[in-house]
Amino acid sequence: SQTIHQWPATLVQPVGSPLSLECTVEGTSNPNLYWYRQAAGRGLQLLFYSVGIGQISSEVPQNLSASRPQDRQFILSSKKLLLSDSGFYLCAWSVLGGRSSPLHFGNGTRLTVT
Amino acid sequence: AQSVTQPDIHITVSEGASLELRCNYSYGATPYLFWYVQSPGQGLQLLLKYFSGDTLVQGIKGFEAEFKRSQSSFNLRKPSVHWSDAAEYFCAVALLAGGGNKLTFGTGTQLKVEL
Predict the structure, then answer these.
(1) Residues paired with residue B44 on neighbouring β-strands, in sequence order
(2) Which one of A40, B35, B44, B48 is separated from A93 by 20 to 30 angstroms, measured CA to CA?
């Protein structure tokens, strides 16, 4: 069966420090991969998605970037964190294909920028 | 652009009572719709999905949802709520773009269950 791993689970970082969140998927090949952010009291905002190695689509201009160095690995990064980057970050995957393919989420990373 | 509205931010029901969570969508074509549930500090779990066929769809944990095109709604229901159903619920509509299945989520409904 397919599983998705995200780490770390929680992270406290000072303003101006770099960020690297990692997500890996097991049990499937060529997945679509996604990074969402969930701010307190708000819905989920799609940040990036990827349909293949090295292919990244950005949804919202911001202080973050994403990379997909391997088929089942998705990394969210920042060179210098801002206070506004605080939130709950969720990685997800779906089968490569149409709109009927649901997204499967990891357990998330709680990021607090101080 | 597609959008999803969940008009109820918080809902409180008694254990054993019935539940209906509202979801309205805006989408130009046939919508692909999903309901997810999120427990505190956790990721989202898929409850059910609709993309064609029977307008009443069954999901996990005893949930069901009915698609009503005339009302642009996809409300989630459960006949008898259990205390373990307390969580946040998200409705989402899918947009296929560049090969990726992009979900647009509502802002969620927080469900509290009174014992």
Answers:
(1) B38
(2) A40
Q: Please indicate whether, in this complex, the C-beta atoms of B46 and A102 are within 8 angstroms of each other.
A: yes
Chain B positions touching chain A (beta carbons under 8 Å):
32, 34, 36, 41-46, 49, 51, 90, 94-108
- CA gap B40, A27 in Å, rounded: 26
DSSP state of B40: T
- Kindly report, residue by residue over B12-44, the tens digit of the pLDDT: 999 999 999 999 998 877 788 999 999 988 899
Instruction: With beta carbons under 8 A apart, name residues in chain B contacting A34.
Output: 100, 102
Nearest to A107 among B42, B100, B108 (CB): B42
pLDDT digits (tens, 9 = 90+) for A55-71: 999 888 678 999 999 99
Set of chain B residues whose Cβ sits within 8 Å of the Cβ of A107: 41-43
